[in-house]
Amino acid sequence: KFIIINNLKFIFTISKSVREDIIKFLGIDKLDYVYLGVDHEVFKPLKINEVKKILEKYNLRFKNYFFYPAGKLWFRKNIINLLLAFYKLINNSSYKDVELAITTNNYSDLSDKYVYQVREVVNRYNLGEKVKFLFVDSKDLVSLYNGAIAVVFSSYYEGFGLPILESLACKIPILFSDIPVFNEIFPENPFKFKPNSIENIYFIFTNFLDLYLKEEKESINRIIELGYKKILNFTWDNTIKNLLNKVKQNIFKE
Q1: What is the CA radius of gyration of the chain?
Q2: Tens digit of each residue's pLDDT (9 = 90 or more) over 1-56
Q3: What is the chain's percent helix, strand, coil content, to nearest 5?
Q4: pLDDT at 244 over 70
Q5: 11, 32, 18, 34: which is closest to 243 by C-alpha?
Q6: Count of CB atoms within 10 A of residue 227's CB?
Q7: Please, what is the Cα angle at 225 between 76 and 36, to 5 degrees?
Q8: Over 7-38, what HEC string results?
Q9: Judging by beta carbons within 10 Å of its beta carbon (0-12, 13-18, 19+), is residue 129 exposed, middle or buried?
Q10: Is 99 in contact with 66 (CB distance < 8 Å)?
Q11: Which positions ≥6 away from 157 have C-beta within 8 Å?
């Protein structure tokens, strides 16, 4: 890898945080970053009836679940701490009816050590009825965002944070790990938790639900609108324009 990297003319990462990590750990400085985007024509608020129809396919009830578009169950996705915090949540009588939907494409892979550990937690704490691991058609993904109470993004580490853009583009609130790359996108988000603390994840769950169940819509809507404005410039057109500009600046210098 070092041979390949040292022979590259220049490197582009997908966030400032990744750029800083590469400089810190590898001592490479010939790199810049270009943010990814979201398709605002695809990820947007949908009509309720349209969403409910899709949710029926996955046995989900409208505005009755938190949604985690995990993709793969990897250690860095922090699924186990999330499950333990969620177990604590639904054992509180005030929040017992809430569910958690996690989209993943490797939950059936029993040869994967981490998947096996996740399944052990689900079985040990009898979470099968409250936590759904779903393999979702990509065309249905927007409906799962729209049908959620909120999106949760509990990773220890990510290169970027597309679910943050996608949820806010759908005008759905998001609870996420307090890590540098997520704070690049939406630093004002009040629903941030320490990913290595089950208690803190639980606290943010309850903090959000207390507002939601008390129908503090103005407070939640203010946060959503703030986040929506923040991500308006995160488009694929801007990604391309920024990349071309930075290529000119860094590679084709006169």
Answers
A1: 19
A2: 777 777 788 889 999 999 999 889 888 878 899 999 999 999 999 999 999 999 99
A3: 50, 15, 40
A4: yes
A5: 34
A6: 22
A7: 45
A8: CCCCEEECCHHHHHHHHHHHCCCCEEECCCCC
A9: exposed
A10: yes
A11: 76, 179, 181
